[in-house]
Amino acid sequence: MPCPLCDTDAPLIDTPVPGGPKGSVAICATCAEQLDAPQADHFRALSSTMWSENAAVQVLAYRVLKKLDTDWARDALDMLYLDDDTLAWAHDVPADTGHRDANGVPLAVGDNVVLIKDLPVKGAGFTAKRGTPVRGISLVLDNPDHIEGRVEGQRIVILTQFVKKK
C-alpha cells in the first residue's frame, strides 16, 4: 500500500496527528521525519494525494503545504477544500503550554499522571497518597505549575512538581 502523502511504496509506520480528535495515519518514515521541516521534492505528490477521504491525511497535507514555500504548494493549498471541522483540526497544532511534570515531560489536557508524593488536600480532610493515579487531567491555563484532576472523587489543584506522566 503506498504512502497516503507522498505515494511511494515504502513501509508505513503509524503516526499520530496532533490536535483535534484522536487520530493517526500510516505514512512512510521519510514523510514522518519531514513533517516538521518538509522538503518540497519529497512532497510533490501532495497535489494529488491531498484529496484523500481520510481527514487525518487531509490535515497532514494541509500542514505540510503551509510549511512549504514554493509556488506549487501555495497553489495546491489554495485549491484544497477542508470542511469546517477538519480545517479547525488542521489549525489546532498543540502549543507547548509550559506545563511539565517532575521529570520535565510536557503535559497536555487529558493526560494521565501519578502522584510522586503524599499530598494533604486542604479543605477535603484527606491525604492523596503517593502512587495515586490521576486520569484525564486539565491544565490551569494561567499557571503552568498547576493542573487539575480528580482524586478520591474530589476535583483538586495539583502542583506539577508532584506528578509524573504515565
Report on this model:
With 166 residues, the protein is an alpha+beta fold. The chain has two domains: 12-91, no CATH class; 113-165, SH3 type barrels (Roll). It is 23% helix and 23% strand. It contains five helices and ten strands; from the N terminus they run E-E-H-H-H-H-H-E-E-E-E-E-E-E-E. A hairpin with a 7-residue loop joins strand 1 and strand 2. It comes from Pseudosulfitobacter pseudonitzschiae. This is PhnA protein.
Brief summary:
By secondary structure, this protein is α+β, with helices and mostly antiparallel strands.
Task: Give the helix/strand layout.
Elements: E1 12-16, E2 24-28, H1 29-33, H2 46-49, H3 55-67, H4 71-79, H5 84-91, E3 113-115, E4 119-121, E5 126-128, E6 133-134, E7 138-139, E8 146-151, E9 154-159, E10 163-165
Helix pairs in contact: 3-5
**How confident overall, as mean pLDDT?**
90
Oligomeric state of shown chains: single chain
Shape: elongated
Largest sheet: 3 strands, antiparallel
Low-confidence stretches: none
Structural class: alpha+beta
Find the count of extended strands (DSSP E, 2+ residues).
Answer: 10
Quickly count the helices: 5
Pfam families: YjdM
Protein name: PhnA protein
